[in-house]
Amino acid sequence: MDPAHHTPPAGQAHVLIAVKELGRAKSRLAGRLGPQERTALVLAMLRDTLAAAAGATGIAELTVITPDPVVARVARECGAGHYTDPAGEDLDRLNAVLRAAAADAQSSSGRGPVVALQGDLPCLRPHELSAALAAARAPRSLVVDHHGTGTAALIVLDPDADLDPRFGPDSARRHRLSGAAVLTGDWPGLRLDVDTAADLDAAVRLGPGAATAAELDRIGWPGITGADRRIHRS
Predict the structure, then answer these.
(1) Residues in CB range of 121: below 8 A, 6 or more apart
(2) Which parts of the chain span the membrane according to its record (predicted)?
(3) Contacts from 36-41 at CB under 8 Å and sequence distance 24+?
(4) Which of 21, 22, 47, 66 has the largest count of CB atoms under 10 Å?
(5) How far apart are CA 58 and CA 8, in angstroms?
(6) For a pLDDT cut of 70, what percent of the chain falls above it?
(7) Out of 20-34, 63-77, 193-207, which region has the weakest mean confidence (pLDDT)?
């Protein structure tokens, strides 16, 4: 961890968010948004995700895992730590660096829970993450995304347990097969990660956070204007 890392109170959770290089981010939005717009949107969604996670009960520390210096700077501006991720495309590399960051957090975070959280959750509400953490009872639990195939959050309660991340295609099934329990709460903002234009439209309907709303307003995304930003952070 970088110097922003500190030791949180015992029993409080440490949230890990992995973000790839900005030049490779959100390629499935390329048909609607240019490179600079995608970059700005990724950073806006990260800011909203971090703000919501920071406001959740039971969360003591946030760390962004990234090889991108701009993402690392935004993480620090939002009060999060930074764990350096070597650049690369391989999903096993992503899972390996998540496992390494989780082990680092577990060794220095008061032996509390560790949460691997998606960084593109613009509609996340603090109470949703609080409720998911409170609902977790098994050593490892997951929150399935709104598509039913991905993993919005992976939670490990046992400080001696491996996070054992299985992110990548069909990760929800792979996490279930690895023994993680499925959490079934009504948490639409926690489940709504954004990869496609349809996901972004769904986020507009649900109500994004302030940073994402402002960026969508700037680029003129349909359904959101400066006079109509449905923002709910409680």
Answers:
(1) 45, 48, 49, 52, 152, 189, 190, 192, 193, 194
(2) none
(3) 37/219, 39/70, 40/215, 40/218, 40/219, 41/212, 41/215, 41/216, 41/219
(4) 66
(5) 11
(6) 87
(7) 20-34
Q: Could you give the angle at which helices 197-206 and 210-219 cross, rounded to 10 degrees?
A: 120
CATH architecture of residue range(s) 13-219: Alpha-Beta Complex (3.90)
Confirm or deny that 171 is annotated as ligand binding: yes
Looking at beta carbons, which pairs linking 108-111 to residues 24 or more positions away fall under 8 Å?
108/1, 108/5, 108/7, 109/7, 109/8, 109/12, 109/14, 109/60, 109/61, 110/7, 110/8, 110/9, 110/10, 110/11, 110/12, 110/60, 111/10, 111/11, 111/159
Confidence of residue 19 (pLDDT cuts 50, 70, 90): very high
9-23, 99-113, 175-189: range with highest mean pLDDT: 175-189
The domain locations on the chain are 13-219
Beta-strand relationship, 114-117 and 151-156: antiparallel
Among 146, 190, 200, 219, residue whose Cα is nearest residue 52? 190
**Cβ–Cβ < 8 Å for 54, 79:** yes
Distance (Å, rounded) from C-alpha 175 to C-alpha 152? 11
Tokens 């969604």 belong to residue: 45
Give residue 230's pLDDT band: very low, low, confident or very high (50, 70, 90). very low
**Who's near 116: CB < 8 A, 6+ residues apart?**
16, 17, 18, 98, 102, 151, 153, 154, 155, 163, 165, 167
- Nearest alpha carbon to residue 124 among 31, 190, 186: 190
